[in-house]
Every structure is written in structure tokens, then in C-alpha cells.
Amino acid sequence: MQTESCLSLIMAAGEGTRMNSKRPKVLHAVAGKAMIDRVLDVCPQGPKPVVIVGHGRQAVEEHVGSRARFVVQEEQKGTGHAVMMAREYLTQHEGLVLVLAGDMPLLTRETIDALVQQAQGKKAALLSSVAADPTGYGRILRDATGNVCGIVEHKDATQAQRNIREVNASVYVFEAKALLACLDALTCDNAQGEYYLTDCIGLLAQKGEAIGAVVAEEETCLGVNNRAQLAQAEEAVRRRVNERWMQAGVTLIDPAHTYIEEDVQIGRDSVIYPGVILQGHTIIGEDCAILQGCRIIDSQIGDGTDVQNSVLIQARVGRETHIGPYAYLRPGSVVGNACKIGDFVELKNMQVGDRSKLPHLTYAGDGTIGTDCNIACGTIFVNYDGKVKQQTHVGNHCFVGCNVNLIAPAEIGDGAYVAAGSTVVGEVPGDSLCIGRAHADIKEKWAKRRREQGRLK
Ligand code: UD1
Ligand code: MG
């Protein structure tokens, strides 16, 4: 099929002035993914895409890397001029060329495929939409029989033409040789003094060539020029993703305030509350409750687990476990089934066995905790001596009392107890009690005497 040999040209040299940003426009993210990545994702199979870069070219080239080839447009003299910069690649290419702008994050693969289909056997096909407010866009001109016969830019249009609401999306498929011939014929005799790629359509129509057209939803054709449109794109992606999960059997209490990136997976009958951000390759099991204020990145959560007001990064949590509120699971945290990781507990590079509990105010890093342990309030894994990080291992069925320091490297044997307030260095044998705290010195009647002396209230 022709799609196989379609070359993609992405125009990304413009300044994006209205973004008012230090960063090139096409590198701005929509739902966690740069706009240029979204455009690359919908390009058809074929030779490596060619990106036309100019403003901020180094950053764009570094970001895209080996996924594309690059040509530079030093001075931005219009979209026609931009495509001229890729002449060498067009000359080498037999067949169809998809030309599109790098700031169209809502394009879909289906739309592009339909456009490529439309272009079969023709010299060109374009994507259009019917805009509620067409101001600023190029208008699609159609002849008496409804065939596309040209595009007129807003600034060059007559009042009658400005009343047309069908607008040019700036996505085209051309036959390479025909495009090259049109580029040679372009002039900059127009209101903006630019080489307009849009003029190629009129030139081909004048030669009697039929122009294919696909009319898409207005939203699909959104071109992002400012931050308000960036937020609009974000909202649209969020809606697409959230609708998909609701259809798949996930309850979203308030989909407008639930932020799920596209690579996330969620099991049936899980409930996601407002203000939750699920990112990267996160996988949530079935029957989970992800309550308000969670940010979960590249993590896995087992069936029936609940998480609230917590941050999880590259963490793995088992089934029927309770996390939070206000827990922080940093990379390498692996928590088993039926555990509790409670409020103000931070884990890092730490394994916690099934049914173990760290209910409050604990830091545990660089170590392991076995099954059925209770790590009481205020326990600290002292893993860092200022130079190196060392490991602490707690066995199965251990009880570590409140306010204990476990100074790494340390080892607590199975079934051992560590008394509250102890500081542990080295090894505690299994089934033993470790108690390391200063004895309290009691001075009887001390407070009474002071009160009588008027030195205490
Ligand atoms: C263009 C179309 C217009 C269409 C609109 C849709 C032309 C002449 N007009 O107008 O019909 O309705 O898009 O959004 O094509 N670029 C370059 N080099 C340049 C100029 C632009 O690489 O010299 C790139 C920009 O980075 C951008 C894209 O081309 O990604 C479109 O350019 P822009 O200036 O936004 O064109 P519009 O005026 O919006
Ligand atoms: Mg534009």
C-alpha cells in the first residue's frame, strides 16, 4: 500500500512568539508528552520523518534525536519556504509526502490515514475543518461543484471569502514531484510577503488536478499558538483518556479534575478521586481506591489497594494494602500484600514483606523488612554515614518500637523485639529483646520544692 512509502515533513521552524516562552513551541508538553512527539506518533510508516527546524533548533534536535532527520530554515519566510528547505529529500522520494505542522497535538492516526487514502491517485489532498470562529485561518475555496480549488489566507481574503467557515488545518499530502514543481512556482506576492505553502493547492487546481479533502472535527485540527490553546489541547487529551477508562469500567468521581497520562493502565472497578495524577507507565489493579491528592509515577498498585494524598515514584505495591495519607514511596520501594504504610512514612529502595505495618512517621531506606512486622512510630533507618549508604535488614515477625534508630549496617533477626527509644548498631539475634535506652533518673518532690520556692508555677 502507498502509505508505506509516505514521507513526513514536519514544519517546526517558527518562533511561536505568542507562547511567550524560553522553550521552542513544539517542545511544550500536552498531557506529559511534547507536541512534536505527538505529531511524530501519528506520522505514517515510511522513511524517517524530516523535521524543519529554525528557532530553538538545537533543543528540538536534541529532543527528537534519531527519530527524525533535520533540515534548517535559517530565516522564516513562510510555510512554502519551510518546505523548500527539504527539497533534497523531496527529490529523492518517490510517492506521497505528508506535510504538517509540529504544533498540532490532537491529530489522530485515523485522520492522517484517511488523508493519505484521499490522496491516492491525486497530486494533493488537504485536511480541513469547519470552524466556529474562522478568524486568522486560511479559508478553503471550493468551486460550483464543491471541489477544492484553492486556499486564501485570512489577511488576503475578501469579505465574502472571510465568511467561509471551512478552514485549512495545515496538513496536506502531496505527490512529491508535483509538490516540487509547485514550490518552484511559488511567489511571495501577498499580504505577508511570505511563500505560502497553501498556494500549491491553487496552482494544482488551476492545472485541472483534483484535490482530495478530508473534513475533520475542529478539535482534531487545533493548532497551538498560545498557552490558552495549550490548555485546550490538554483538556481534550484528558477527556479522550478519561472517557476510555470510564468505558473500561473505572469510576472517575470528577473526570474534569483527574489527570491520567496515556500509557497508564487501570483495572476494572477501581475508583479514582479528584486531584489524582497518574503518570508514565503506572499500572493500577482492580478494585483500588486512589483517593484525593495522589501523584503516582511509573508505579504498580495491586488489586484492592487504597492510596491517599501520597506520592509514589517507581514503586511497587501489592494487594489489599493501605498507603497514606501523606506517604512518600520513592524509587525502589516494593511493598507486599495487606501492608500499611501510613502517614508521613517515607520509603526508598526498600522492600516490605506481606502484612507488615509502618503506620506513622518513619523513614526506611536501603533495606528489607520481612513479613508480619510492626515498625512503630518514629523509627528511622539511619542509612547514611555522610559518605556511604548501607543496608538494614529486619527479619519476619519483628517488632520495632517507637523512636528507634537502626544504624546501618544492621540486622534484626526473625521474631526479635527492639524496645522503644533504642539505638541499634550491628546485629540483634532472632527472638531476642534489644533495649538500649538511658534509665530515667527520678528526683522525688523536686517540682513541689520548686513551687514552694516560687520558681515554678
Ligand atoms: C497556516 C496556514 C493557514 C492555516 C493555518 C492553520 C499558510 C500560509 N497558512 O497559517 O492556511 O489555516 O496554518 O493553523 O501556510 N513555519 C515554519 N517556517 C516558516 C513559517 C512557519 O517552519 O517560515 C511553521 C511554524 O513553526 C508552524 C507552521 O509552520 O508550525 C505553521 O505556521 P504559522 O505561522 O503558524 O502559520 P499560520 O499563519 O497559522
Ligand atoms: Mg499557526
Kindly state the percentage of residues in helix: 10-25%
Overall residue-averaged pLDDT value: 97
Q: What is the C-alpha radius of gyration, as a whole number of Å?
A: 32 Å
Q: What structural class is derived from the secondary structure elements?
A: alpha/beta
Bound molecules: uridine-diphosphate-N-acetylglucosamine, magnesium ion
Q: What proportion strand? A: 25-35%
Q: How would you describe the shape?
A: elongated
Number of strands: 36
Rounded to the nearest angstrom, the distance between the terminal CA atoms is: 93 Å
Which spans of ≥5 residues are poorly predicted at pLDDT below 50? none
Strand count, sense and barrel status of the largest sheet are:
21 strands, parallel
With helices defined by DSSP (H or I, 4 residues minimum), what is the helix count?
10
Features:
single chain; 457 residues; alpha/beta; 21-stranded parallel beta sheet; 7-stranded mixed beta sheet; 36 strands; elongated; binds uridine-diphosphate-N-acetylglucosamine; binds magnesium ion
